[in-house]
Specification:
17% helix, eight-stranded mixed beta sheet, alpha+beta, 8 strands, 2 helices
Length: 120
Amino acid sequence: MLTLTGSTPRSCRVDVGLHQVVIRAGRFFRTAFPLRSVSSVIVLPHHRVPGADVGPGGVRLLGARTALVQILLEAPAHARRLGRRVAVRHVTLSVDDPNLLMTVLTNRGHRRARRGSVGG
């Protein structure tokens, strides 16, 4: 299903910048939200079946056969699903290294604290 929409492993990615997270799944799905809007990150057990679906307030993008990472947002983020605009409050992903993604997303507050304490 994802391959039919152009969502091959090369076009599916999660980019975490200093201030923003961008999630892409080819032409199927794209969203971007401020890093500060991430309220929690949970690593869920392994899943068996790849695929994608959109439910009330969220999206699941399952490609790799690894543990899942669920990102919960404080406020809905705007997203594009097959060209249509939707709002999501949570995104569930299968990524190659779920623990690394969780660490990067949850350590965002420590980066700000360290930056502020260096000058003082």
